[in-house]
Amino acid sequence: MWLKGDKVLEDTARYEIRNTDFKALITVKDAIRVDGGQIILQATNVAGTKSVPVMVKVLDRPGPPESIQISGVTSEKCSLAWAPPIHDGGSDISHYIIEKRETSRLAWTVVASDAVATMLKVTKLLEGNEYIFRIMAVNKYGVGEPLESAPVLMKNPFVVPGPPTYLEVTNVTKDSMTVSWHRPDSDGGSEIIGYILEKRDRTGIRWVKCNKRRITDLRLRVTGLAEDHEYEFRVSAENIAGIGEPSQITPYWKACDPMFKPGPPTNAHVVDTTKNSITAAWGKPIYDGGCEILGYIVEICKADEEEWAMVTPQTGLRVNRFEIKKLIEHQEYKLRVCALNKIGVGEPAAIPGTIKPEDKLEAPELDIDSELRKGIVVRAGSSIRINIPFKGRPTPEITWSREEGEFTDKVQIEKGINYTQLSIDYCDRNDAGKYILKLENSSGSKSAFVTVKVLDTPGPPQNLVVKEIRKDCAVLTWEPPANDGGAKIK
């Protein structure tokens, strides 16, 4: 009998088998490629079995390649690999033809027409499109049957990287700065191939690249900056999927020669105390570190401790005076003041000794300007306002009086914590005179006066006397009026 593999060949329309006592013949009609291979003649009798293999080679086009595999898929390329066909058609495989088509189309496009190896890298594909590939082996008898792949979608197997972190600006000069950063927490699944650093002038709105070539290091010296201009920076990482989100933006940095922390403030001293507060003041540092002073920080601690507490905002004060409240009466404290610029907090200036929150006794003091000391001149019907600031502890008692006698009903007196005001509306000549202010507390007293002149018609003459009365005449005598109306009697 005749065998091919494990299959016994039967007499059919294509297979004609003729066996005699001394001869065995098999005829294959219209032979095709699959008819090739090893055919075994097996003869058996009572004495045993004998097999004879016969190799049959059918000369034809090759069969389809085997085991197509697709790897390295990105948004625009992939790699194909396959095995040679089981049936080579009786002739060596000379090359392969690879074709592609989009699943949305029917037409095939040749990718390679003379590939010798059993692998190929396909490029210039369109992102987001789905492709099918087919491969055909070629021998001297023609092009074999194709092997088609499953559809494959062109997309990256990874994403863009995250933003770089910890941006830092150092080595600042008038025309350059060094910007450094840390790698992103996520590289997106693909190796980072470079960084893009951008800058923006405070006066501009556009971001401008600082590097013409791809940056592979984690720092860059940015040059060509305009002196005294302020810049902010951001950096983005790039991998094969593209450019990721930019980092957080740095603060503005001024292009100027190197800057340092400021020196200590000058003349730090206590201005005032109360039973639960201390007011301190100070001057600017002699050395500002080469940049603007952004503020001042005041710190306090108890005299018998070493732990300092900040009593101002971390961003600092913009003023040179500060009142520290909610302190313990008679508790001794230490105070110090530091200046702050964009580089950091400078050396502290300590106020000598210790300070106790306690009320101070202060004799009254009046603040009368030179114009008020010259006196007030108004026309009749006008208003008079005498406003006098003062200070003193405890708050002094305020007493107004008039040298010419009692106040008229029109006089109004206002008393504040640190000022007092005497007001008269629609004044006339009777409101003229010397107005006296007296301040008094347990520490002393203080007085001052303001002269008021009202321009009005004069008052009546005084002491009219009739003398030397005769039958046709008499002599009259009188004295000038007590109030001349603010002008000499003509």
TrEMBL record:
Residues 64-157, 163-258, 264-360, 460-490 form the Fibronectin type-III domain. SMART domains: FN3, IG. The keyword Repeat applies. It holds the Pfam family I-set. Keywords: Immunoglobulin domain, Repeat. PANTHER family: MICROFIBRIL-ASSOCIATED GLYCOPROTEIN 3, TITIN. This is Titin. It comes from Micrurus paraensis.
